[in-house]
Design goal:
seven-stranded mixed sheet; six-stranded antiparallel sheet; 27 helices; transmembrane helix; cell membrane; disordered N terminus; ATPase_P-typ_transduc_dom_A_sf; HAD-like_sf; 22 strands; alpha+beta; metal ion binding; Calcium-transporting ATPase, cytoplasmic transduction domain A
Length: 773
């Protein structure tokens, strides 16, 4: 069995090479026929040459006529009519060389189209070929068994060996080094810590590791991508509508001009010459090649578009409707802030909550556990865990009873203020308590994607004039997100039916794109001219009905797709218009009797080569984004990672400001001030100085100039000024309590620094850290 498997490995590449060779065979045969005929003609055997050229003409005429008849049977009238008439006319008047050259031209166009199709579908075929078929599963009694992928169930413990493709979505049980380039487009190896989620389809680039399945094979990320890849087709259909629109005017014009040339001169050969130079290769082949090239490019950017018609519509879009949760926002909550009771320990509160929540399947529990692990906190296995739906989880951690969830009864003053702060900020509060009292609250938020605002700007620059956010969330939260990303209108508390109705209404005004990620978005995606699903997190109903799917969890790839679609459509239109304009000029000359059929055939061949080469320009260009050099990417990753530490300082800064505001005479006030000032000078200011010295100069190239980072440099100046101002007050206070006249100015510095630093971090994450692919 093993020998047979090894012997079969090279068969597929051999078959593929034979298939590719056969696709070029008609072009090679016709080229040989034209050249052989030319040799016979030069040798004086002109009858044999004519027979050979006539045979080449008939070889091309038969399939072209059959294609035309099938179109007419379906009551479709296209540009194939001209090609058939030109070939038949060349045979009737005895212009066999002209007919052979037309046949060669059509074969050249078809070969180039097949090449562009292969290039467009190469990435999709690669997805299918590397799809895992089996998985290694741990046996309860010990040992490992290899099972078919469809037998893997949620909760199974798997083993992913070196070089293996991760078979299903799951949680890694120990540190892993992964190559996620196929799924995410990220070229660098990625380190995943124990407990982190990984998507199926990524490759193990390090030692083997354990994986606990969180989804079945059919529901996993890679299965969804493969299903979409099977449906996505790079076919000739993309520009059928455009070609037929042009054909509606071009074909009658050609026939009338050919008839006039024949009627006015009495020479049928003039009509044939007109038909020869009118052979519409720019419509039949050049325009589909441009669109197919666009399909190839968006596939490489992590966007699967089902067909060229959808890409053409995406290039004409003027209105965008976009869902909020999971599209403009990350779609999974994160712990934004931990508020603790007076004298409490923020890290200990988070550790207790995450320890209890380790066994809970709730999405909020996953956020707490992830946050604790990112902070390097040691989690303890809980005991006596019980979960009450809607109320929370209770368990013992190190013998201590801990409750995580909702809080009933009257709240202490600090807890009431925390609840009010969460409500104002649009955050969810998860309370952590022991047997006696609440210990703290963890405020969770669904953060706006760092690349969302940049993506909205790029979409406007690409030509979208109306951007609307539709969401089922509360108006207050929806308005905050809308202001952050810069959309034109907001529709909050929106049901799936209302989303669909709004899409239908907008589609009546202009070509409309709908972007969403959830099952509730599926009806709206199906209703839109172009539905785009955020499919990177797994296969959902939204991905099944969408016209395009983002297989990478980055919203900016939507802007990439729109820019590429517009560019490909512009190149396609340009190829059609320029090619037909040149053909019309040649037709007029042919109708006047100045261009014989043979010369017209060679001239048309030259026109076709020009427009096809122009169409292949769609394989590059069009993107507005600048490439980020690898060294700059490394710097961006490093400083983005340091933001977590800066946010920790921000949390302490806010707590200290609250303490100064409420208890300026407290003996804990000055020590807290000195501690937070020490963290500001020891951690935040060095981070800002290093950015100024290393990161900002490196960004001058990708951003276009040194001036692009000057507003952020001004932010660094303000941050240092406020830190120095806090230090000045500490120096004045000495060992004694704060004076009354100091409190007001100190509070202005503390709260001002909190606001400036938060804004500064958000701007860096949106404008700089979202740059790399």
């Amino acid at each position: 069995m093993g020998t047979e498997a090894r012997e079969c490995v090279p068969e597929r590449p051999v078959r593929q090479r034979w298939a590719r060779g056969l696709q070029w065979a008609p072009l090679a045969a016709l080229t040989l026929a034209v050249l052989a005929g030319a040799g016979l003609w030069l040798a004086g055997r002109r009858t044999w040459a004519d027979w050979l050229w006539a045979a080449a003409t008939v070889t091309a005429l038969a399939p072209a006529a059959w294609s035309m008849l099938r179109q007419l049977w379906r009551r479709q009238f296209g540009v194939d009519v001209i090609a058939v008439l030109a070939l038949a006319g060349a045979l009737v008047v005895g212009e066999y060389l002209a007919g052979a050259v037309i046949a060669l031209m059509l074969a050249t166009g078809r070969a180039l189209e097949a090449y562009a199709q292969r290039r467009a579908t190469r990435d999709l075929r690669a997805l299918l070929e590397r799809a895992p078929r089996t998985a290694r599963r741990r046996v309860p009694g010990g040992g490992i068994e290899t099972v078919p992928l469809d037998r893997v169930a949620v909760g199974d413990r798997l083993v992913v060996g070196p070089g293996d493709v991760v078979p299903v979505d799951g949680t890694v049980e120990e540190a892993a080094t992964l190559d996620e380039s196929v799924v995410t487009g990220e070229s660098r190896l990625v380190q995943r810590a124990a407990g982190e989620q990984v998507a199926s389809g990524v490759a193990n680039a390090g030692a083997g590791f354990g994986l606990r399945a969180t989804k079945s094979a059919a529901a996993s990320t890679y299965a969804g991508i493969v299903r979409l890849a099977e449906e996505a087709t790079a076919r000739k259909a993309p520009m059928v509508r455009m070609a037929d629109r042009y054909a509606a005017a071009f074909v009658p014009f050609t026939l009338v001009l050919a008839g006039l040339g024949w009627w006015l001169s009495g020479e049928f050969v003039r009509a044939v010459a007109v038909l020869v130079v009118a052979t519409p290769c720019p419509l039949l082949l050049a325009t589909p090649i441009a669109i197919v090239s666009g399909l190839s490019r968006v596939a490489r950017r992590g966007v699967l578009v089902r067909d060229g018609g959808s890409l053409e519509l995406l290039g004409r879009a003027r209105t965008l409707l976009v869902d909020k949760t999971g599209t403009l926002t990350a779609g999974r909550p994160r712990a934004a802030e931990t508020v603790v009771a007076p004298g409490g320990d923020r890290d200990e509160v988070l550790r207790l909550a995450a320890s209890v929540e380790q066994l809970s399947p709730h999405v909020l529990a996953a956020a707490l556990v992830r946050q604790a692990r990112e902070r390097g906190l040691r989690l303890t296995d809980p005991t006596d865990v019980t979960e009450e739906p809607g109320r929370g989880v209770t368990g013992r951690v190190d013998g201590r009873l801990v409750r995580v969830g909702q809080l009933g009864g009257e709240l202490p003053q600090w807890a009431a203020r925390a609840a009010e702060r969460a409500e104002l900020a649009g955050r969810s509060a998860v309370w952590v308590s022991d047997e006696r009292e609440p210990l703290g609250a963890i405020l969770l938020e669904d953060p706006v994607r760092p690349d969302a605002r940049r993506t909205v700007r790029r979409l406007r620059e690409a030509g979208l004039t109306r951007l609307i956010m539709v969401t089922g969330d509360r108006p207050g939260t929806a308005d905050q997100v809308a202001q952050a990303v810069g959309v034109d209108d907001v529709l909050a508390r929106c049901t799936p039916q209302e989303k669909t109705a709004r899409v239908r209404e907008e589609s009546r005004r202009a070509v409309t794109v709908m972007v969403g990620d959830g099952v509730n978005d599926a009806p709206a995606l199906a209703e839109a001219d172009v539905g785009v699903a955020m499919g990177a997190t797994g296969a959902t109903a939204s991905a099944d009905v969408a016209d395009a799917v983002l297989t990478v969890d980055r919203l900016d790839r939507l802007a990439d797709a729109v820019e590429i679609a517009r560019y490909a459509r512009r190149i396609a239109t340009q190829s059609a218009v320029v090619g037909m304009a040149l053909a019309v000029a040649a037709m007029l000359v042919a109708a006047a009797g100045r261009l014989p059929p043979v010369a017209g055939a060679f001239l048309q061949e030259g026109i076709d080569v020009v427009v096809i080469l122009n169409a292949l320009r769609a394989l590059g260009g069009g993107l507005r984004r600048r490439d980020v050099p690898p060294d700059t990417r490394e710097l961006l990753g490093r400083y983005a990672g340091e933001h977590a530490a800066v946010r920790d300082v921000l949390a302490a800064l806010r707590d200290t400001a609250d303490l100064v505001a409420t208890h300026p005479d407290s003996p804990d006030c000055l020590p807290a001030l000195r501690a937070v000032h020490g963290r500001l000078t020891g951690r935040v200011l060095p981070h800002e100085a290093a950015e100024e010295r290393q990161l900002y100069p490196a960004l001058a190239g990708p951003l276009g100039s040194d001036e692009a980072t000057s507003p952020m440099s001004r932010g660094h100046v303000e941050i240092r000024r406020l830190v120095d101002r806090i230090g000045g007050h500490l120096a004045q206070a000495g060992d004694g309590p704060l004076r009354g006249d100091q409190v007001t100015d100190l509070l202005a510095a503390l709260y001002g620094l909190d606001a400036v630093l938060r804004l500064h971090l958000a701007q860096e994450e949106e404008d700089y850290f979202s740059l790399p692919d």
